[in-house]
Amino acid sequence: MHQLQAGDIICCRLRLKPQEEHILLDLVERGVTLIPSATSQLASRSKAFQARIFHPLMVPGTAAVYDLHGLLGVISGYQRTAIERVILKHDRKNGGLGIHLFKDPEDIFTLAANNGIPFPFVLQPFIADSRDVRVIILGDYIEAYERINPDNFRNNLHCGGRAIRWELSDEQIALCQQVMIRGAFPYAHIDLMLTDTTWLTEINLRGGIRGAAISPQEYGRKIEDIHRDLLQKIFT
Fold first, then answer.
1. Contacts with 126 (C-beta within 8 Å, 6 or more apart), sequence order
2. What pLDDT shows up at residue 170?
3. Which of 83, 105, 125 is the last residue of a domain?
4. Which terminal residue of the chain has fewer beta carbons within 10 Å of its beta carbon, N or C?
């Protein structure tokens, strides 16, 4: 790492341990080009970071929580607006396993104050009767499918959900593109929540393709093509 210098390029996702993300900042400050971008790599690792940079595009009331004082502020805001049921998302868990439903935000404070919940985490008002759509964007390739689980509020396929093809509207495609530009994502798996409007819930550089039409082989080729195109743009 210490031999890298301005003009060098790292074309792969860095395998960093938790709390090593400061390395991304160091590399960027030293002029090392990262493909995918440092912002997209960090956002893929941290839901709290996503809640910070994509806040205007998420369900109103979504908040990254870093300590007890911040948690009290979020809970007070929920109480002022009569929000009761909330979703807690652990910062670094995927596949629906880090998502928890609470009937009262005060229960979250009790657990957090007694070290029952690690910081940081994301809080979000629970929205009933919403739809969950996964979007995969790989350059010009776009596909989407709705995830449905009648037995659980977790629609993730890993948690028992099933996939049904979904036709994206122009507005939904534009939202996905806006998210990718903001986070400097060259490709992405994007989760949308559909109510009377469309909200971003999560984004990741990689994700499971169970339920998708694309094959693992084609998926891998498209990722390689995108990396190759980005490299060519640097050298031309």
1. 85, 86, 87, 101, 153
2. 97
3. 125
4. C
* 180-200 pLDDT per residue, tens: 999 999 999 999 999 999 999
Q: What is the pLDDT of residue 47?
A: 97
How many C-beta neighbours within 10 Å does residue 11 have? 13
The C-alpha angle 23, 221, 182, rounded to 5 degrees, equals 45
Contact (CB, 8 A) for 105 and 75: yes
Please check whether residues 179 and 221 belong to one and the same domain: yes
Q: Quick one: tokens of 3?
A: 């031999």
Phi, psi of 10 (to 5 degrees): -115, 115
Residue pair 211/145 in contact by the 8 Å Cβ criterion: yes
**Amino acid letter, 138:** L
pLDDT of residue 30: 97
- Please tell me whether the peptide bond between 216 and the residue prior to it is cis, using omega within 30 degrees of 0: no
| CA–CA–CA angle 185, 31, 176 (5° rounding) | 10
What's the mean pLDDT in 102-121? 96
Domain's final residue, options 93, 125, 157: 125
Q: Other C-beta atoms within 10 Å of 38: how many?
A: 21
